[in-house]
Design brief:
Elements (H helix, E strand, L loop, with lengths): L5 E2 L10 H17 L2 E5 L3 H13 L4 E5 L10 E4 L4 H13 L2 E3 L4 E3 L5 E5 L9 E4 L4 E2 L23 E2 L2 E5 L13 H19 L14 E4 L5 E5 L5 E3 L1 H9 L4 H7 L3
Parallel strand pairs: 2-3, 2-8, 3-5
Antiparallel strand pairs: 1-9, 6-7, 10-11, 12-13, 13-14
Length: 262
C-alpha cells in the first residue's frame, strides 16, 4: 500500500520524535514573535488559517496575505463550490480579524526560487518573515519510473484504489489521484476501503469502488471566526458560530484521538 502523503506544507515538521517536533513549534513561535511584519503568500486554506492564527495569538502583528485570485479560497479545488459567497466571506473574515489581504497579485521569485519582496506589478510587500503557502505537492518523486504518475505527480489509481496496471498495489491519501478534495475525512474513508478491498482480494471476492466524497470544508480564521461549506444543503455556506463550535476550538484533534482510542 502506498500513502506517501505530500510535501511542502508550511509548518509541517519532518522530525520523528515528539520532543523534536515540540522544539520545532517552539522555535517557529519564537520566529513569529520576533518578526515585526509577516508575509503569507497563497490564499488557500493553509494561508488563511495561518494568518488567522497569527493575528489571534500575536495581537497587533502586521500580517499581509497575498493571493493571486480575486478573493481568498477561489482556486477551484473542488469545482465551483468555492466561488461566490464562500470565498467572499472568507476574505471578509480575514480582513475583519486584522489580516491585510492583497488579491489579484502575484509574487516575484529570486533566482533560487524563494519569494522576493515585491509583486509582479512592482508593489513592495517586503517583510521580516515570509511563508510560502502556495500549495503542497505529492511526495512521489521516489516512485518515478516504477509507479504510474499523473502530470502533477499524483499516483494514478482505479476506482478501487488499486494502482493503475498493478492490481496488487493500492494507494490512498494526499498522493493518490482520486480527484477529490484532500481532507482528513476523505483519507479515513479511503483507508477503510483499501482495508476492505485487500481482504476481498485475498478472499477472491469482488472489490468495491470509491464513492465520490461530498465537498465539505471548514476554514477557521483564529479560534472565533471562520466559514464553512456544507454538502447536505446543496453547498450552503455557514458562518463563524458553527465553524468555531465544530473546528476552531480544537481543530478536530480530540475527535481524531477518540477515533484512534488515545
Amino acid at each position: 500500500m502506498l500513502a506517501p502523503g505530500n510535501g511542502g506544507l508550511v509548518g509541517k515538521p519532518t522530525h520523528t520524535t515528539l520532543a523534536a517536533r515540540r522544539a520545532f513549534f517552539v522555535a517557529e513561535a519564537a520566529r513569529i514573535g520576533a518578526a515585526k511584519s509577516i508575509l503569507i503568500v497563497g490564499g488557500g486554506p493553509v494561508g488563511v488559517e495561518l494568518a488567522g492564527e497569527i493575528v489571534t495569538d500575536f495581537p497587533g502583528k502586521k500580517v499581509l496575505l497575498v493571493h493571486s485570485g480575486a478573493s481568498l479560497m477561489d482556486s477551484g479545488m473542488a469545482g465551483d463550490s468555492f466561488a461566490g459567497k464562500f470565498s467572499g466571506n472568507i476574505t471578509a473574515a480575514a480582513r475583519s480579524a486584522g489580516v491585510k489581504v492583497l488579491t489579484n497579485a502575484r509574487m516575484t521569485r529570486t533566482a533560487d526560487g524563494v519569494f522576493g519582496g515585491t509583486t509582479e506589478s512592482g508593489e513592495d510587500v517586503s517583510a521580516d518573515l515570509v511563508y510560502d503557502c502556495t500549495g503542497s505537492r505529492p511526495s512521489t518523486a521516489f516512485l518515478q519510473g516504477n509507479i504510474p504518475l499523473s502530470p502533477s505527480g499524483y499516483i494514478k489509481v482505479e476506482k478501487t484504489l488499486q494502482v493503475v496496471g498493478k492490481s496488487n498495489v493500492f494507494a490512498l491519501g494526499d498522493a493518490a489521484d482520486t480527484g477529490d478534495l484532500k481532507q482528513g475525512y476523505t483519507a479515513r474513508d479511503q483507508a477503510a476501503l483499501v482495508c476492505a478491498n485487500i481482504e476481498a482480494a485475498l478472499a477472491k471476492r469482488g472489490l468495491k469502488a470509491l464513492k465520490p466524497a461530498p465537498v465539505m470544508i471548514f476554514v477557521s480564521v483564529g479560534r472565533k471566526a471562520g466559514v464553512g461549506l456544507l454538502p447536505m444543503c446543496g453547498g450552503c455556506v455557514v458562518g463563524s458560530g458553527m465553524v468555531a463550535g465544530i473546528k476552531s476550538k480544537g481543530l478536530f484533534i480530540n475527535d481524531t484521538r477518540k477515533d484512534h482510542g488515545v
